[in-house]
Input
Amino acid sequence: MSMFTIEPSNLSLSLTLGLTLCLSGCQILPKQPHLPESQALSARVEALYQQDNKKSDRVQIKRLDNGTSITNSNTDSIDLVAAISEQNDIHPDLSGYHPIVTGANAFASRSILTGMATRNIDAQYYIWHDDQAGQLMLKDLWDAAERGVIVRLLLDDFNNNAKFDQHLLRFSSHPNIAVRIINPLMYRKFQTLNYLTGLPRINRRMHNKSMIFDKQITIIGGRNIGDEYLSNDKNSQFADLDVLLIGKVVADIDNSFADYWSAPISFDIETLAKLDKRETTDFLEGLDKLRADEKNNNKSSLAIYKTAIDDSSIDTDLINKRVPFRWTDMQFLSDDVGKLTKTVPADTNLVHQLRTLLGSPSKKLTIISSYFVPTKDGVNTLVELAESGIDIKILTNSFDATDVTAVHSGYSQWRPSLLRAGVKIYELKATAGEEKRENKLWKARSQSSTSLHAKAFAVDDYQVFIGSYNVDPRSANINTEMGVIINDDQLATQLHDALSDDLLSQAYEVKLQDNGNLQWHTIEDDKKVIYDSEPRVDVSDHVWLTIMSWLPIDWLL
Output
């Protein structure tokens, strides 16, 4: 955006205002958000679980060479629901968790569990890209629907486009599939118009990420669905963290999905867009990203996903109870869907739930946040805690690793105050994925640039939060978020220990000198290196960051 503008004449200003008012008057969302077909589908889901005394349908999963799954009800059977239920019965008041660290495992877990589901799959995501990962996951869900599994897909609308609408319309044409868009943009083809007519409504987004299989097992965390989130993008990768959950907590996550799914601001895709019959109307034929590299065979980037599935044993491990779940007490947290329409009190927000359940740390606080914008009040709190003797460590993105420059301006200005109080700050390097050493908590396969995308923090020696919530005003006050508090000393210790000198091959440690200047300490080529100025920030970057830090935009970040 240009820093210089020309003041319009009174005539052009009047025309602009008139056009905006006209478009505002035209922006009317459909009166009926939920069509009878999708309502009937949801009723079928409820009916499936009203007779839990009946045995679930048993299926045999067979892995194909192309990484997809099919079912064969005529062979000896395995039962995912029964296998998990047996473990739940042993721990009736607890929940089991297993971290999903690599992007390859994140994709494989979702794909294989989709192939194992026998009743229904509910998925809720902020971003679902129209790339190879996104189309592969849609194909997996389509295959599940083909064998009778009911699929419900709920997406935020901020990253969609008219082309993806067509994929979703073809996808939802299956009688066992329904797609809804929450808080949708009205203008599907000319999306810029929404910024003229839809603000501030469209500024509030659903940032939740979850996938629930047969109401028995779920994956939540920081990952969206897309190549860069699942370690198969040539230009950038996100280092992230998900968690596989079974047990008592799954019911709470399922109830949260139901609230968002049935909300009056969640619209069936058919109410927002119409299928363009000039293009293909066949869902599988429309998956163009899956055909792009077919001629390259094993050299295809699709081979990475196929290899991830072939290398994973999560299906047999679940059936044979070999997944090393740790069983403990957990609390699921989620913003009320009414946060998107500002119809619920602020004290119901997830951030207030966190404060109530976690309280104030007495010994340690470790924060991992891709977008860390503490604001003045947050900095004062952290400084007060640090000065009282609390060991505080923070990992966020460096300037060259962040994918949102404005966020860095909302964070960088507070580094001296935090460091002066004794807070330790680490900043992930964009080259982190190129290092040979691998951190125990997450790994990133990167060919170019790595960016931190995980959202987790540990309090003292017992409590850990993993979810979609960043430590920034947007997560606290604008978007909806979700996550789980895991009460486990082993996981808390791993998170605290992850931020140490062992991280310096992948990150900078920012230190404050006696003269007030900052230094960035790291390891390059097995040697300690100290930068006296912020790495990869040139003069123009510094000027731009300084200007943005003066602007009152923290609440938007």
Notes: Residues 1-25, 55-77, 434-447 have pLDDT under 50 and may be disordered. The chain has two domains: 39-327, 329-556. Residues 146 and 176 are 8 Å apart (CA to CA).
